[in-house]
Fold this sequence. Notes:
The complex is a heterodimer. Chain A is mainly alpha-helical. Chain A has helices spanning about 1-25, 30, 40-50. Chain A starts with a helix and ends with a helix. Helix content of chain B is about 70%, strand content about 0%. Chain B has helices at about 15-30, 40-55, 60-80, 85-100, 110-120, 125-140, 145-155, 170-175, 185-210, 220-255, 270-275, 280-300, 305-325, 330-355, 365-390, 395-400. In chain B, helix 10 packs across helix 15.
Amino acid sequence: MFRNKIVTNFLVYLLLIAGYLLFYAFPVDKFLFEKEETESSSKVNFIYQQF
Amino acid sequence: MKELHSILPFTEPLFFWFLFAGVLLLFGFRALFRKKVAYRYVLAFISLVYIALMFTKPVQILGLIAYTYLVYYVFARKLNYPKLLLPVILLSVPMLFMKTLNILPTEEPGALHNLSIVFQIAGISFMTFKVIQLYIDESGKDKTVSFLDFFNFTAFVPTLLIGPIDRFQRFNENVKAGYDSMQPELFLDGLNDLIRGLLYKFVIAYGISMLFLEQLVNDGTVVYHAKQMYGYLFYLFFDFAGYSLLAIGFGKMMGIHVPVNFNKPFLAVNPKDFWKRWHITLGDWLNDYFFKPIFKELTSKKKFKPIQRQNLALFLTFSLMGFWNGFELHFILSGMLFGLYSVIHNYYTYLCKKNGKDVFFGNLPPAAVRILSIVIMFNAVAVAIYIFSGKISYLFDKIL
C-alpha cells in the first residue's frame, strides 16, 4: 500500500515536471505546429465565466 | 490595479501565490494569535481581499452575496415565511437574468450590452445552488446564520468559481472547529491533491487541448466528430477534475474538507452510477433539492403510476440541470439527453424486476454485463458531453 503510494506519487511528480518542461518552459507547440495562437487557458477561462 | 480584476481562481500563477499567502496567513494566526483573532475572521479577510483585488466585478459579486443574505434574512428570519418557492425564485433571479442575457444579442452597444457588462458574474450558477441549499436547510432552524458565516460559505475562494458545491452545515462545522481543523496531515494530503490537480489541469488537459483537439481539421466527416467527441470528453474530465482537485487541495490546506467531485467516472455502469462519480456534488444537489421534492409533489397528486412519477421527476431534474448550465440550445439538449438516459435505465430496471430477469443482457455472465455496461455508458456520456460542448451547434442551426 505504502509502496504503491510512493510509486504513484513519483509518477505524478515526474509527469508534472515533464509537462512543465514540455508545455511551459520550452513550449513544444512552437516547434511542432506553425500556429500564431493556441486556444489554451483563455478558452478555458471563457467556459468557466459562463457559470 | 485595474488589470488585477481579471484573475479567476486557478487561472493565473498570481492566484496560486495569493492562496499560498492565504494559507500562510492562517497558519501564522494559528501559531501567534489563535486566542485573539478567530479563524472565521481570517478566512473572511482572505476572501474579501481576493474579491476586492483580483476577482472580476467585485462590486457585483459582493452585491450578490448581500442580496441573497437579505432574501434569507427577511424570508427565513423576519417573516418566518413557510413556503420555499418564492424565496428560491428570488435567490435564482440574478442567475436567471444572467442566463437570459447570455442568449440575447449583447455585442452591439446599447442597453443590453451595458446590462450584460453589469450582470455577467463569474461563478453565479454555483453560488446560486449554494445559497438555495443554505436557505432550504437553514430556514426552519432556530438559529440565524450570521452574515459572516454566510459570507465565508458563499465566498470561499477555492470553490468560488465552479465548485465543488459544498453544503453549509458541513462547511460551517470546519469553520467552527477553527484553527484546530488545520492539521499537518491534512495539509500534506491537500498538497498531494494540489499536485494531482496541477497535473490534470495544466499538463494532461492542456496537452489534450493543444496537441490533439486544436490540431483537428473539420472536414465534416464522422471521423472528425468522433475524434472531437472523445478528445473533448477526456479534456473536460481532466480540466474539471483537475480544477476540483486544486480546490480540494487548497481547501484542506486551509482546514476545509471540500467534498470530492470526481471518482473514476468512466467506470460507471449506468446513469445513476455515473452521477455518483462525475460532478458528484452537483448530482447530490439535484437529487436532494430537485428530484426528491418534485417526486414528493407528484406522489401527493396521485396522478401518475410510481414508475411514471420517477421517470418524470428524473427527466425534469436533468432538464433543469441543462437550463442551469445555460439557456443555449446545446446546454438544454444535453441536459435532456442525460434525463433520457436516466429514464431509459430506470424503466429497464423496472422491467428487469417485473420480469424477474435481465431483459436486455439476458443470460450473459455478470463480468460481460459489467464490461458492456461500461462501454455503453461511456459512449452515451461522450455523446451528451459533445452536445454540451456546443461544438456541433451548427448542426442544430441547420436542422432548425
